[in-house]
Amino acid sequence: MSLTDTALKALKPKDAPYIVSDDRGLYVEVLPSGSIVWRYRYRLDGKREKLTLGKYPALTLKNARLKRDEAAHLVALGQSPAQKKQQEKVAGAEDATVAEFSERFFKDRRCAPAASAAHQATGLSG
Questions:
Q1: Prediction pTM value
Q2: Measuring CA to CA, which residue among 33, 30, 34, 52 is closest to residue 42?
Q3: How confident is the model over 47-65, as pLDDT tens digits?
Q4: Taking a C-beta distance cutoff of 8 angstroms, is the pair 52, 44 a contact?
Q5: Which residues, at least 6 apart from 94, have a Cβ–Cβ distance to it below 8 Å?
Q6: Runs of H (alpha helix) within the chain
Q7: Burial of 74 (0-12, 13-18, 19+ CB in 10 A)
Q8: For residues 58 and 37, what is the distance between their CA atoms, to the nearest angstrom?
Q9: Is 108 helix (H, G, I), strand (E, B) or coil?
């Protein structure tokens, strides 16, 4: 059964992560923190793989389906979308200037407040 925007908005976090399927390998994982993450599950050369597409609501249902279709096209060509994403990530890090790297580093640090709060609670200085 396909997901709808109404169904996505009604999803509530639980004590453990859980999955709600859409169609053709696309699903959302609802995390205990309340985050909802789009993922695509597929098989390539007999191996199960998954690709993280992005977070809801920043990545809409319509756009998640488009990304899934792009990834499915790569799978049909015998390519791993997950490996391609990792290669692009590594290539981007190698090409980054110091300013771009530091900007990405601090942006990533701001996106992980739970770790920072836990670190500060222990009284350790970084």
A1: 0.71
A2: 52
A3: 999 999 999 999 999 999 9
A4: no
A5: none
A6: 5-9, 61-76, 81-95, 98-110, 113-121
A7: middle
A8: 10
A9: helix
- Of the candidates 26, 40, 42, which has an alpha carbon nearest to the alpha carbon of residue 75? 42
CA distance 31 to 11: 10
| Closest C-alpha to 40, from 62, 15, 13, 69 | 69
Question: Which domains, from first to last, does the chain contain?
Answer: 5-78 (3.30.160.390)
Class of residue 44 by CB neighbours under 10 A (exposed 0-12, middle 13-18, buried 19+): middle
Which two three-digit tokens encode residue 81?
């979308």
Asked whether the beta carbons of 99 and 65 are under 8 A apart, the reply is: no
**Confidence class of residue 126 from pLDDT cuts 50, 70 and 90?**
very low
Q: What is the DSSP letter of 15?
A: S
Residues 6 or more apart from 13 whose CB is under 8 A from it? 30, 31, 32, 33, 34
> Which pair of tokens denotes residue 4?
């709808």
Q: Give the per-residue pLDDT at 17.
A: 97
